[in-house]
């Protein structure tokens, strides 16, 4: 089998950028009672989304519209843009894959933060790109200034930024993006992942009609809209850039149900507002849980809170594993420095109580 | 924007391998009364699938299992294989994209039939591969002998075969595949697209446990299971080959609803049998319609019938467009030679009657 598969692929390990909670459940031989590890919305999709998906389930014999026309029209209206500024895909994950397909060839360089969303690196590696990283600052923020300077030196095909940031919850204000755009090379694509933008303060998010030839903004229905399992996201950008996606993307990949569900979700502004309010409340509760145990909760502009355990990676790993054994699914970033934090998604009061108990027990066990 | 996007991508046109019926509807300003152009199953998904999808719609806030564990277990049982022989993806389209990502790099060569499923060529081009083709035989069959000979000369990374064939409906028997496997180079992956296998005579389909290091068999829930809009397919192969997909695929891309729907579909063998029987009946009715108008219907081992209009491509184009204007969605292959055929999907008696009337009117109009 020497010559089967491309050389660069044969050298890679077979693994997902994230281990799914179902895999952990099978491994542990028990289901999670509390699922706060994947930044999903326990507050669920809009009832109107659920209704729309159930209603069109019988239509699943038909392929979904490969242009996602109605959804793109609805998104264009929401953002004050044209449909040609928008492309849909199978969540931000799928759209990052598309981006790396159009931007890179084997040997291309891409730039991001050390510890940023692993799926970007996963698809960059699959595309044969070399990934360069810049560490987070000591206060758990992406170092946009250093990233920009490095982009000037490196001239990467893609500079990947997330705002607000995952896995820290921190954010940069809209003006910072303008500075990045002014200073990065014209032939570097700034891929701005705004998965968590709905939870952020207004000052963090540039106006939706900020369109530049080298700026692509990634949005999703997975977080505030509570549709992670329906796989649907979109990119906002310059029409020329958006048109590149149509050269490589799987046009039919967004399911018929997901399209119907997303259109219904956009129409239910009240559900979105309720979710955002619930998340804000949960963030405070999570911060309180952390503080009661003597830990700092990092300020969060997202639907999760990163808790700084202030302990080395090994202790933090033991705590995370212990919490998992106690039936609570949370994540610990894998990267050096960030791996002293636990990333806990906003949940119901019951979820947070269960997490708090598990964390307390895990810490006591470690200290004993 | 000179340096934005990879050079090979900038050179491509922005277009889908297929224009969706919704796009045609918007262009024509009217909805299709009859939808027989995308080889979907008008007989629908199993009621159990519809019920399962509706039931889990509210769970869409959770990502689907990235291992598709339960579904793969069910498929392994169905085929008498192990789960490690199976990988799931967003339909065969998405899995072909994965294949081309793992098998090719820019400059690789792939081989297929001239006029074979365009999505294979689309993703091959996106991967930077050079596509070589071998024409169909005069009796509308893929020329497996010539393809094998050409593979020996060319040593392509992938040889893409479909059996039964789309868009002709013809098939090769299981023994022919053995001959291909014996004769192609060991480092050529034989990608066998079996999307239509459920409709084929038993002699066409090799046993499911025919596993070879360089053989990958593509299956789907889009056709006989009536779940095209749910985007779910799988590949059967050698564990080493299957593991390569995990290096590049979008692990979370198959929706939670689709996984639940597919598991329910596998359990409803009666619905599958009914669909296959309905399709067989419809094929006969479509052949009758063609013969009544003096045209030959090609023998079909699929859920569609290719009607040989025996006219040049230009006349055939006019007929196809006229049928479309009369509210009936069918496809005409784009490639020279095959473009004298119309590809008509199995439908209800009403669908077929409408198609027959539209075809008669279109032919009369052309002759007048």
UniProtKB/TrEMBL annotation, chains A, B:
Q: Which residues form the Aminotransferase class I/classII large domain?
A: 35-357
Please name the PROSITE patterns in this protein's record. AA_TRANSFER_CLASS_2
Q: Which cofactor does it need?
A: pyridoxal 5'-phosphate
Q: Which InterPro entries match?
A: Aminotrans_II_pyridoxalP_BS, Aminotransferase_I/II_large, HistidinolP_aminotransfase, PyrdxlP-dep_Trfase, PyrdxlP-dep_Trfase_major, PyrdxlP-dep_Trfase_small
Keywords tagged on the record = Aminotransferase, Pyridoxal phosphate, Transferase
Family the entry assigns: Belongs to the class-II pyridoxal-phosphate-dependent aminotransferase family. Histidinol-phosphate aminotransferase subfamily.
**Which EC number(s) does UniProt give?**
2.6.1.9
What is this protein's name? Histidinol-phosphate aminotransferase
Q: Does the keyword Transferase apply?
A: yes
Keyword Transferase on entry = yes
The pathway that the record names for this protein is: Amino-acid biosynthesis
Q: Please, which domain of life does this record's source organism belong to?
A: Bacteria
- GO molecular function per UniProt: histidinol-phosphate transaminase activity; pyridoxal phosphate binding
């Amino acid at each position: 089998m020497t010559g089967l598969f491309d050389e660069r692929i044969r050298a890679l390990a077979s693994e997902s950028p994230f281990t799914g909670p179902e895999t952990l459940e099978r491994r542990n031989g028990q289901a999670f009672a509390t699922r706060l590890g994947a930044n999903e919305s326990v507050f669920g999709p809009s009832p109107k989304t659920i209704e729309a998906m159930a209603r069109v389930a019988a239509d699943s014999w038909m392929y979904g519209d490969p242009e996602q026309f109605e959804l793109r029209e609805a998104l264009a209206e929401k953002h004050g843009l044209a449909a040609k500024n928008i492309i849909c895909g199978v969540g931000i994950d799928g759209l990052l894959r598309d981006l790396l397909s159009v931007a890179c060839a084997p040997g291309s360089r891409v730039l991001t933060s050390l510890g940023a969303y692993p799926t970007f690196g996963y698809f960059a590696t699959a595309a044969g790109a070399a990934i360069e990283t810049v560490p987070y600052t000591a206060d758990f923020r992406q170092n946009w200034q250093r990233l920009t300077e490095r982009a000037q030196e490196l001239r990467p095909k893609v500079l990947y930024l997330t705002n607000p940031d995952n896995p820290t919850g921190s954010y940069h204000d809209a003006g910072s993006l303008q500075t990045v755009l002014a200073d990065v090379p014209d032939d570097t694509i700034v891929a701005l992942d705004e998965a968590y933008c709905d939870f952020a303060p207004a000052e963090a998010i540039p106006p939706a009609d900020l369109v530049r030839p080298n700026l692509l903004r990634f949005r999703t229905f997975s977080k505030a809209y509570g549709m992670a399992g329906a796989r649907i996201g979109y990119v906002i950008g310059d029409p020329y850039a958006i048109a590149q996606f149509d050269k490589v993307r799987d046009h039919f990949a967004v399911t018929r149900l997901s399209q119907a569900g997303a259109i219904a979700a956009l129409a239910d502004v009240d559900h979105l507002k309720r979710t955002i309010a619930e998340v804000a409340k949960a963030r405070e509760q999570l911060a309180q849980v952390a503080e009661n145990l003597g830990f700092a909760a990092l300020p969060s502009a997202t639907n999760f809170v990163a808790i700084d355990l202030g302990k080395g990676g090994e202790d933090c790993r033991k705590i995370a594993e212990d919490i998992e054994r106690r039936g609570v699914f949370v994540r610990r970033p894998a990267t050096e420095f960030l791996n002293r934090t636990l990333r806990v998604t906003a949940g119901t009061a019951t979820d947070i109580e269960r997490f708090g108990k598990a964390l307390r027990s895990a810490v006591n066990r470690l200290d004993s």
